[in-house]
């Protein structure tokens, strides 16, 4: 009996080959970064694409100590977790209101909310700086938490609104007949039903806020309150750079967030697919 591989057409083998090349091209930069983190600075330039002659695990400890990555990690975790929690909760509440409630200017407000998808961050950087200065929030974690949450709202509302449109309203209507108020319906019925999409947007927003650099450079000056993307810049010297330390710091910074994404990617795909269904 012929095997499955024997029955594949030449076109399918070409598709597999092209797909394999694309996957290799996507993953190789990360693999190259990790391998370079184990090399010396001289070895990186001498043989950039080869395996390390000696696996220097001490590079990671040195990068962690010299770059003070512990405090940077703490700041990034606090900023990211706070901004993601705020954005996902309020965006879900807004999407529920836009999809379930009737109130004046509902459609207009919904469209205005989505304008944020079209605005690049540099456009609002100066106004944001002025607002944060007037509120005396510069050089505080709130200077990153609030803009990060606000910047994530538009996309999160867009995705959550589409998900609410796919959810049947039978249970909500039954709860309303039983005397439940709007908050009880939202908390006890709607939130559990849209939880997969909330998790999807939490992951997407985590990646975006974790990697945010421009606002962190503009709004935070004190080193003890800076986040990881800003701290990585300190590894680049004015006249010389120890690239082994750079790659070690990059590996420490990026691998946890990549691991989080790969562990939860099926939830991301499921959430986005459900939103896209008509």
Automatic annotation (TrEMBL):
Highest taxon in the source lineage: Bacteria
Predominant localisation class: membrane
Domain ABC transmembrane type-1 per the UniProt entry, residue ranges: 73-264
Keyword presence, DNA damage: no
Signal peptide segment: none
UniProt key word DNA repair: no
GO-annotated cellular components: plasma membrane
InterPro entries: MetI-like, MetI-like_sf
One matching Pfam family: BPD_transp_1
Keywords noted in UniProt: Cell membrane, Membrane, Transmembrane, Transmembrane helix, Transport
Membrane topology qualifier: Multi-pass membrane protein
Gene Ontology biological-process entries: transmembrane transport
Localization in the cell: Cell membrane
Gene3D superfamilies per UniProt: MetI-like
TM region(s), chain numbering: 13-35, 72-98, 110-132, 144-164, 242-264
Recorded family membership: Belongs to the binding-protein-dependent transport system permease family.
Name used for this protein in its record: Carbohydrate ABC transporter permease
Organism from which the protein derives: Histidinibacterium lentulum
Upper classification of the organism: Bacteria, Pseudomonadati, Pseudomonadota, Alphaproteobacteria, Rhodobacterales
């Amino acid at each position: 009996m012929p095997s499955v591989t024997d029955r594949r057409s030449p076109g399918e083998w070409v598709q597999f080959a092209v797909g394999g090349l694309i996957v290799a091209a996507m993953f190789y930069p990360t693999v190259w970064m990790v391998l370079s983190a184990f090399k010396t600075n001289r070895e990186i330039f001498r043989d950039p694409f080869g395996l390390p002659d000696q696996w220097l695990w001490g590079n990671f400890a040195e990068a962690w100590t010299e770059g003070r990555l512990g405090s940077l990690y703490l700041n990034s975790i606090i900023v990211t977790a706070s901004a993601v929690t705020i954005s996902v909760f309020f965006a879900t509440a807004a999407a529920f209101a836009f999809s379930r409630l009737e109130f004046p200017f509902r459609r207009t407000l919904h469209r205005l909310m989505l304008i944020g998808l079209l605005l690049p961050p540099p456009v609002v950087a100066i106004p944001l700086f002025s607002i944060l200065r007037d509120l005396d929030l510069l050089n505080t974690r709130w200077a990153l938490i609030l803009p990060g949450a606000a910047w994530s709202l538009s996309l999160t509302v867009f995705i959550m609104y589409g998900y609410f449109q796919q959810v049947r309203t039978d249970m909500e209507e039954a709860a309303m007949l039983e005397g439940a108020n709007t908050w009880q319906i939202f908390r006890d019925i709607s939130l559990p039903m849209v939880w997969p999409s909330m998790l999807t947007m939490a992951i997407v927003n985590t990646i975006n806020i974790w990697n945010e650099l421009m606002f962190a450079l503009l709004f935070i000056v004190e080193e003890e309150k800076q986040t990881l993307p800003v701290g990585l810049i300190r590894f680049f010297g004015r006249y010389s750079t120890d690239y082994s330390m750079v790659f070690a710091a990059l590996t420490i910074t990026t691998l946890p967030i990549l691991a989080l994404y790969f562990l939860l990617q099926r939830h991301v795909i499921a959430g986005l697919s459900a939103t896209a269904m008509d």
